[in-house]
Automatic annotation (TrEMBL):
Gene3D superfamilies: FAD/NAD(P)-binding domain, Glucose Oxidase, domain 3. One of its GO terms (biological process) is glycine betaine biosynthetic process from choline. Belongs to the GMC oxidoreductase family. It comes from the Bacteria. Its cofactor is FAD. It comes from Bradyrhizobium lablabi. This is Choline dehydrogenase. Signal peptide: none annotated. InterPro entries: FAD/NAD-bd_sf (IPR036188), GMC_OxRdtase (IPR012132), GMC_OxRdtase_N (IPR000172), GMC_OxRtase_C (IPR007867).
Length: 537
């Protein structure tokens, strides 16, 4: 066993939270930070070219490619859970949509006792992270490391989508991250000059060579957190064939995501003592909430084949277009290769009496089936509809004491029947948009929804086809006077010292939107809280 060195902070996981907190803490040259990630550097063309996400999401390139346990609410189907592997985490493989969620989401966190997490409290951290090329004012930042801007695809289908929104009498929305976000429009993305801006590209890559106090180890798979009594003092990890240890003077910060953070804690003896005992793991601290409270957005995808030349797919006619697109991307960093696929979408209410939208749409410029894993000849498009605030709760647990084995992931989709009923309403609302003249004219063939009309037929189809839209959170939730809370509002793990969690697993409830920007916000706020504690000590 080799002890590699001692740092003030050891951050486990280079995803959106981990990159952000490591980048911010290492701004102080007097503070030493080590960042460990099991994957690679993620700084090549596959990551930086937006279009290449198709090479990652459907397979195991920079992707853990997890599966769920069989889902009772989905006819026993096994779901798919792609998660980013390597620096940037899921921000290196995602669709780059920049969304914060609704003001009410954060005010709800604060109302649960999480002081400092209301929308007004977190807005400064969203702004601090953001370098928005298009919007300013009270809701947007211009000087942050995370580049946010409008798409550079120049795809005329965007205008057809906006026309359809008007035909369906949906309101249009230009900025989804201001005071309100109900409506349909074109998404902003985390890109810079037509290239993906992952959390690593924003917070870590620019500093890897010039900050002597920042160490970044890739190919470093954490196997357990090291404790002395109730204090976290370091991390054991495997790099290549060697088992190593790295020590932390101040804190171990776990930022391995909604699945692997609870897994690492459980492997290290932090979790439900009885459940850990069944695996022969000695309990360091009994914390039953570790791995509980899993929440994710259940998602249904409408799919259509289309002859419109601006969609992507498998066709001989598409080869010349692809070659032209590659040439244009090399010259200008514009055009189809800058597409995040989910170029348009928005937030809608399934009932007019709702205070805030309860569904989100992602309109995709390609025909995708089963996360792109099933291929269809020809070109087409999709429209995702997801339920924003599901009532179902799932779990993440150990299937094995092997740290290289995947955890058991159970989102428990449709575990609460109310979620299914809201998805039926969401299906109908989305279909109203898809049957507008503008979008109807694009459709050559309806792939999954033809002949589906009654509520029972819709329910049956949803159970057959719903899966994740990639937003798992909540498995180490923040809370106060809550026996299932894992961290306090400063993100410190209850009952232990020198241990903090900084990723989407701390969210007590799932926010109504994409989760990358909120996780970066969590990293920003965590760094600020840690710096304040260091100044006070």
């Amino acid at each position: 066993m080799r002890v590699t060195d001692t740092y003030d902070f050891v951050v486990v996981g280079g995803g959106s939270g981990g990159c952000t907190v490591a980048g911010r803490l290492s701004e102080d040259p007097q503070t030493s930070v080590a960042l460990l990630d099991a994957g690679g550097r993620n700084d090549n063309w596959v990551v930086t070219t937006p279009f290449a996400l198709v090479l990652m999401v459907a397979g195991n390139v920079n992707n853990w490619a997890f599966n769920t346990v069989p889902q009772k609410g989905l006819n026993g189907r096994i779901g798919y859970q792609p998660r980013g592997k390597g620096l940037g985490g899921s921000s290196a493989i995602n669709a780059m949509v920049y969304i914060r969620g609704h003001r009410a989401d954060y005010d709800r966190w604060a109302s649960l006792g999480n002081t400092g997490w209301s929308f007004n409290d977190v807005l400064p951290y969203f702004k601090r992270s953001e370098n928005n090329a298009d919007f300013g004012g009270e809701y947007h930042g211009k000087d942050g490391p995370l580049s946010v801007n409008k798409l550079r695809t120049d795809n005329p289908v965007q205008q057809i989508f906006l026309q359809a929104a008007q035909e369906g009498q949906f309101r249009l929305r230009e900025d989804f991250n201001a005071d309100e976000h109900e409506g349909l429009g074109i998404y902003q993305v985390t890109q810079k000059n037509g290239e993906r801006c992952s959390a690593a590209r924003a917070y870590i890559h620019p500093h890897m060579e010039n900050r002597a106090n920042l160490r970044v180890d890739t190919g470093a798979h954490a196997t357990r957190i090291l404790f002395e009594g109730k204090r976290a003092v370091g991390v054991e990890y495997r790099q290549g064939k060697e088992l190593k240890q790295i020590r932390a003077r101040r804190e171990v910060i776990v930022a391995s995501g909604a699945f692997q953070t609870p897994q690492l804690l459980q492997l290290s003896g932090v979790g439900d003592g009885a459940a850990l005992g069944k695996h022969g793991i000695a309990s360091v601290h009994h914390l039953p909430g570790v791995g509980a409270n899993l929440q994710d957005h259940p998602d249904f995808v409408f799919g259509y084949m289309s002859d419109n030349p601006n969609f992507n797919g498998l066709s001989l006619k598409g080869i010349p277009r692809l070659l032209r697109a590659i040439g244009q991307y090399r010259r200008e960093r514009r055009g189809p290769m800058t597409s995040n696929f989910a170029e348009c979408g928005g937030f809608l209410k399934t009932r007019p009496d709702l205070d805030i939208p309860d569904i989100q749409l992602h309109f995709g410029m390609a025909m995708a089936d089963d996360h792109g894993r099933k291929r269809h000849r020809g070109t087409g498009f999709t429209c995702h509809v997801c339920l924003l605030r599901p009532k179902s709760r799932g779990t993440v647990s150990l299937g094995s004491v092997d740290p290289f084995a995947a955890p058991l992931i159970d989102p428990n989709f449709f575990g609460d029947e109310a979620d299914l009923e809201t998805m039926v309403a969401g299906f109908k609302t989305t279909r109203r948009l898809m049957e507008t003249p503008a979008l109807k004219a694009l459709q050559k063939k309806e792939m999954y929804t033809e002949g589906v009309h009654t509520d029972d037929e819709i329910r049956s189809l949803l159970r057959q086809r719903v899966d994740t839209v990639y937003h798992p959170v909540g498995t180490c939730k923040m809370g106060v006077n809550d026996p299932m809370a894992v961290v306090d509002p400063k993100l410190r793990v209850y009952g232990l010292e020198g241990l903090r969690v900084v990723d989407a697993s701390v969210m007590p409830t799932l926010i109504g939107g994409n989760t990358n920007a909120p996780t970066i916000m969590i990293g920003e706020k965590a760094a600020d809280m840690i710096k304040a504690e260091m100044r006070a000590s």
